Amino acid sequence: MDQSNHTSVNITQIACHDCDLFLQVPQLRVGQSATCPRCNAFLFKNQKNSVDRSLAFAITGLILYVISNMFPLLSLRALGTTQDETLISTSVSLFKADMPLLSIVVLFTTVIFPATTLLGTIFILMQVKMDKFNDYTAPLFRFLRSTDTWGMLEIFMLALLVAMVKLGDVAEVVFGTSLYAFCLLILSLTLLSYSLNPHDVWSKLRNEITQ
Amino acid sequence: MSAIKNTEITARDAGFISCHFCSTLCKLPKHADLKKVELVCPCCKSNIHLRKPNSINRTWALLIAALILYIPANTLPIMTFTLWGDGQPDTIISGVIHLMDGGMWPLALLIFVASIFIPVLKLIILTMLMISIHLKARWKPKDRTVLYRITEFVGRWSMVDVFVIGILVTLVQFGNSANVTPGLGALSFAAVVILTMFAARAFDPRLIWDVLESETKSGSKKTVSNKDNKQMVKP
After folding, report:
1. Could you read off the pLDDT of A181-202 as tens digits, one per residue?
2. Beta-bridge mates of residue B39
3. Residue A149 and residue B32: Cβ atoms within 8 Å?
4. CA within 20 to 30 Å of B166's CA: A46, A60, B50, B55, which one?
């Protein structure tokens, strides 16, 4: 590429991502959030201990994620046999039922993306805390931000509830060991997405570049 | 909530590009031909554009694909419940009706909202937004942006039915006496959900607002700069 693909960075102003309005970066007190005055888009917020809290929720989430994958979530007992349901077995059984594409979708949305979100967030936040960044930090965080909507564990939780009620009057549904860990995992993932402030991470990275 | 000083011009008019991923504001280099040169965000190293490239074409393509696949998603069976060798194929709608007949109203409502209401709502909203862009409509840009945000936020919840099928296929495996097999309808439905999610991502909500700016620009530039000064005086 030629020279003109390098641009200078403006850090005193910001553009609204929904309506492109040119705005001054406001100085926010703790607990405040900034919204676009024209289209009401949420821009960013200032939260107390955002990095520490997010890191705590991400590590908690990772531990719970491992436990959730170790034991069955639900079991169905009928006709003298028991069928177990684990996170990974959903995509395995879809694969066996001649639905490879569907099984890949389920594998990515319920197993792979939640794992990369947790691992990647821990990695990035560690770097933010230690103030050491490398070339892979920005692309990794970009990947995490764009795959954020594709981790669908909370939707899987709702599906578990639906399946539980549906099968409840046909056969005996037994709660698995992992179900409790899974509920807490959903809670910590929700709290993580609430406490994580991508704007903070990006502005750290920006400062690194402009220095 | 905190009020932000409003300059009443867009970043594009001010000569800046906002990075889509990290919202770093980059100065547009002078005499840069955007059609030839790919600009790179200095912060996150992604390619930056004033507007999402080919937004309208990509959104239409994904949206039309989703509209076509919506037909097999509703006509083909999503799963077959076999009990003692007696198979009963279910489509999305017949599944909801069976739940209603079985007296499970809350569940029927939930599946109805997730599998029928939300996908239809998304397809209608996105089609309307695209048509409004083509007509260069100035009608309530703020409300249309809210509609866009709804499609972006709510779309992923349609996956509930796909996951329910996956769980039932895993749990109900009792040889010949009782089992559940997934149908092609489930695959088509998952494709509809994923395609509309991509379509919502390909759509650029700034296109809704761009029409308003071209209006003020052609009117007179003075009014804009006056407004700008007034805003600056305000504390």
Report:
1. 999 999 999 999 988 888 888 8
2. B48
3. no
4. A60
